User: What shape does this take?
Amino acid sequence: MLDAIRAAGTISRVGLISVTGFTAPTISNLVRKLIDEGLVVETGHAESTGGKRRVLLRLNHTSRYAVGVCLGQGVMTYVLTDLTGVVVARISRPGVGAEAPATVVTRIAAEIPTLVDSVGVDRARLVGVGLVFPGPLTGRGVAGLNPELRHWREFPLGAALEQATDLPVVLDNDATAAALGEHWAGGFGTASAAAALYMGSGLGAGLVIDGITYRGPSGNAGELGHVCVDADGPRCWCGARGCVEAVAGPAAVVAAGRADAGLAGALGLTTGTGPAAVARDFAAIGRAARRGQRRSLALCERSARYVAAAARTLANVMDLEVIVLTGPGFAVAGSVYLPVLRQELHTVFSRSAHAVDVRLSRSAATASAVGAAALVLESELVPFHRGLRVSESLDGEFAPLPGSAR
Amino acid sequence: MSTTSAVGLVLARAPRLLGAEPFFMEFISGIEERLAEHGRSVLLHIVADPAAEIAAYRRWAQLRLAEAVVLVNPTAGDPRPAVLRELGLPVVVAGEPDGDAPAVRRDDVGSVRAAVAHLAGLGHRRIARISGPDTLRHTRTRTAALLAAAGPAGIDAVVLTGDYSEESGAALTARLLRDGDPPSAIIYDNDLMAVGGLDVAGELGLTVPRDLSLLAWDDSSLCRLSAPQLTTMSLDVHDFGELVAGSVLALLDGAPVRERWCPTETVIVRQTTAPPPGGLE
Assistant: This one.
């Protein structure tokens, strides 16, 4: 219901009946409940069609807020969104580095009220926290196996953050969250099969099928970075050979850039290991490529050809209509990758049936944090669209008012 | 420095300025990157109107949430610098300051001259410019510079006021082209409006640049991804952000903050400017 109103912008009760398939009395009851909770307001009348004029409904933007956090090794991004998923505030803080998970949880729990206070929003209007990180997820919804985050493997991140913030917490991987955020922002248009290609410290993808994010049984669907593009290629950290992330991901681009002494000197590339240094150097190479600097352009275009091959595989398997490039990597270098991907996706098998549209996200730099906020809004306010909720499911059909017993 | 303090930046998302958002996202990423090297962050707050912007400054001062503020979109008769002074919030102005506040300036006069010289050199004698909102100081500076440069060069210049959105670029371009005596070249104050203009020119059956030259501002991905690729002024928005961060860092260190200037922009010639129909006069 809320999702239908959000997607429509404004809609009448009659419109809701046709969109949701619920009966008129059900719609009438649900709408009354939403209005009582302050989530929905009536907003004038639709054009008269001869009979009784229909009252239009819309979401009450400022009735609820959500926090989205993207936990990264190099940088942590926090956003605060309103009920419609529109960003009201954001801040980036240093990444988790080698810090102990419990310390990071304390830090996040301290940052959230500051962010909320900075925009003058009543903390009681906060629905919850969406927390996303570079996947993959393990079975218990615990943060991942990504090599630099190995010490997080058995840490009950969601539960610890719920306890520290006294707010519901929803977890997901960054690429899936970015896809959800793109869906909420309308970036997939009317496509029934769409993917967000996410370039952060690695490479991933999130899938939105028929308006719903597809996670797979363990939340790991769309692991595009581990599509094989060279059976005899280098060994990836995941154990397999020739993964596109190992062959052509940001770390591979940076390694090639650093190996070129002239380029490394010209761009001030570092020798730092760690994801923060890699992200900084990838940004430097991407920006130089954008300016047309020849060697940087060659590095990015080589990477783009492999990423394009992996994207073509995904498009063929999923019969995709739209691919959106997003994440901090594409925020910098997306305009260099885009033409290469467009070219490659002209050869997709299903192209005779429909085009595959490749676009840049309008909020690539913070997409996963924005998506994380959408994730918790969806999980708390829209039944049946749950992410990987860590606590007990909510009692009742809609979220209770914040502050009431959960 | 408290672990929760930050450099504040409020973006008033007046409906008239929606199209300026891609610019500010790139600008802020430049500030963030430079500040992060010093362990500092940008707190970005997006508000609906100027009153909410001023309320945010008051809240930040009271709760000590911002150690400094970056003020964007300076306007004529801007009320904000006085409020910030009263609150004791250190400020760096991105653009033309009101009074002696530390500022990072853009050479709008020099850049407009370069744009006019490029088009005049190709032989254009009727030039239009679709500007940003004329409440902004730099819009007024560019307008004055355009009129000053056009006269002596024997150029007939006209300015229409847009709002940075693709839609306004398209609508105003259509208005110009349907006029009885349309310009042979159009300058846009940003990239989005130029993209809108390029689309509309195609819809009206014109071939760019053979029939009409277009010159965009703010070199961004959009300018390189359009077909044909947009010729544009070279402002590197990311670098502008880094310069602002440099002034902020100096301010917070208590060092004297010199006025910083973005490099005067040059024309990056791509595929949308050419001699006017009929060639050089």
Remarks:
- The longest strand of chain B covers residues 6-12.
- Chain B has a mean pLDDT of 91.
